[in-house]
Input
Amino acid sequence: MLGSRFKANEFFADIASIGRWAIRYFLIGLIAGCASVLFYYLCQLGMRLFLDGLAGFRPPAAAGEYPLFSPGSGEFTRWVLLILPACGGLLSGWLVYSFAPEAAGGGNDAVIDAYHNKESQIRSQVPLIKTLATVITLTTGGSGGREGPIAQIAGGLGSLFATKFGLSVRDRRILMAAGIAAGVGSIFRAPLAGALFAAEFLYRDPEFEYEVIIPAGMASTVGYCMFCLVYGWGSLLQSPDFVFRNPIELCPYLILALFLAVFGILFIVCFRTAGRMFDALKIPVYLKPALGGLCTGVIGFFLPNTLAFGYGYAQQALTLEAGPLILMSLAVGKILTTSFSIGSGGSGGLFGPSIVIGAALGGAFGQVMNRILPEIVSSPGAFALVGMAGFFAAVSNTPISTIIFVSEMTNSYHLLLPSLLVCSVAYLATRRWTIFPHQVSRRIDSPAHAGEFFVDVLQAIKVKDLRDCIRKVVSIRQEMPLVEFKAYFSQTEQHYFPVVDQAEKLVGIFSINDIRGVLFATEVDNLIVMKDIGTSDIITSTLSEDLNSVLKKFTIKNIDSLPVVSEVDPRELIGMLNRREVIAYYNKRVQNLKILPSSSPRRSG
Output
């Protein structure tokens, strides 16, 4: 009866705990969804006031981006584009470096750093400053995307939520990741990809933060619904109904993957080089985004399509509304403007530009291949779609979530096979490079999981795995007089001495520290036997015990050696296990786990 009542209470306690966490994930999704709604509105408002209102520049919008404001009537003034990004960079730089310097740059790398190294703590002013700085940077012509900023904004709100309610560091990490998923999944109308992205983009190797996938999925669903209830349902981009039917077409797709990898490395090198150049400048930090904006404006003067978001140009690549030369100039120009805008400290994401660059490269490649091999490449627009996924997978080390991202963003799921091939090959070709330098290789390398991994590995190792490290030692008879032991002690280097009875059964143990006080007391040499010195309160281990438990026993009385006894007879001594050898064995196991034959040193540019 008592057992049944206990199980019932345990069941209802589990239900209550699940309910509390479900409510938290729902609230994070709702908060992040509202933040995305506001962020999108401000971006649209800024585009109308600045690029449209001041420069008369009205770049095409993606098919799923419904305008919130009617376009202006002013004429396009190219000269305004020359100075407008610099003005935006100046205002954004002053705002960021005055109130929240960590809000500078792309945003994704900042939350990766917070997750691994800062216990997922994001200051309360960061979401607000990041919102305003990003809107100013991008709507005055700076080249960037929305995913990095919304990741830092929504992730910061998740972190603040956890801190406000006094949750643990682990819970704060999960809620921050859930906020990231909800923000990214909602503003790009890709809830599944948002959840996978939040779990994947933290690492360089093919690794997922598995404990955040379910919370991220729940929050992303709520955020997506909130966003679409305000701005309408549907995908960000509209794609023709591409269908993959010809396996021979995988050969051009394979070439596309290598083509994207080359430009991916070029993008990373340009972005990191620009960042180092601006870091080295001996000018006030708030002026650096202005200088980056000026460089962006110079390029935008000749190539206006490289400014701001650029999702409409990705749409044109899908529908073949631009030729190969225009698309290649867009790709190269977008690499440069993004490097200057974000590398100088301006606020904006890197996913959006990567999607535009990938679409332009894939569209240009597809059109060229269509002219060379029309019987094989019959739908060049399909290469633009696959190019989106392949390029971002190459620069960000997120091949899985990127495939889902592009499929959800375009509402096209018929190109999953070539997308998988291109993303995989592009990722493998650029594994030594990453645009997010704070990514760590795997969970084992993350400070956030250092203690967890230590325990997990130790629990997986049993004492029997260290059988070669279990040392046979000389046992001391319990009736041995102290004077006789002294003669033996002068000839041994043994530090711990098991005490046994006439049947060779363990009855006690002592160390050299235990006999230090009587070694020179000659008056008791024949009065004391070793049973009197040894303690009968013996801490032992068995062959089936895990090393986590063994190390805890080592620390109970700060001992360096532990008797290993038989599981059948706890008084039957097998040997002694030293703490130093346990730690050495653990280090060796960890080193073997960290070494991958295919791994090589990584670069961030």
In short: The CA atoms of residues 478 and 531 lie 5 Å apart. Residues 22-238 form a domain with the Clc chloride channel fold (CATH 1.10.3080.10). The chain has a mean pLDDT of 87.
